[in-house]
Design goal:
Elements: H1 16-25, H2 41-49, E1 69-76, E2 84-91
Antiparallel strand pairs: 1-2
Length: about 100
């Protein structure tokens, strides 16, 4: 993993998810699909990921086990309490 920082801090179109995905993939060209007005952001990211033979898999934390390796976790933002913030989560073979 290569840490990539969020560059847009906003309660409307921040790019924390883009930064988390770019960190996991170790890529600098990940677009901010939250700024894609013509489609849902999940569709936008999957369009970006498809040529790389990747796709987003969405699941509810707590109802399903967290997979081993890197995941993107949505947590309550400390800047915008009514909004979610994306962070990278890593679970190793010991479950940590």
């Amino acid at each position: 993993m290569k840490p990539v920082s969020q560059t847009i801090i906003s309660d409307v179109n921040g790019d924390c998810f883009r930064a988390a995905l770019a960190s996991i993939l170790e890529l600098d060209d990940v677009p901010n699909c939250h700024n894609t007005p013509e489609c849902d952001w999940i569709i936008g990211y999957n369009r970006y990921l498809r040529p790389k033979n990747l796709q987003l898999v969405w699941f509810a934390f707590g109802k399903n086990p967290v997979p081993q390796g890197y995941s993107i976790l949505s947590v309550t933002s400390h800047l915008y309490p009514n909004k979610l913030h994306a962070v990278v989560l890593y679970k190793d073979e010991k479950g940590i």
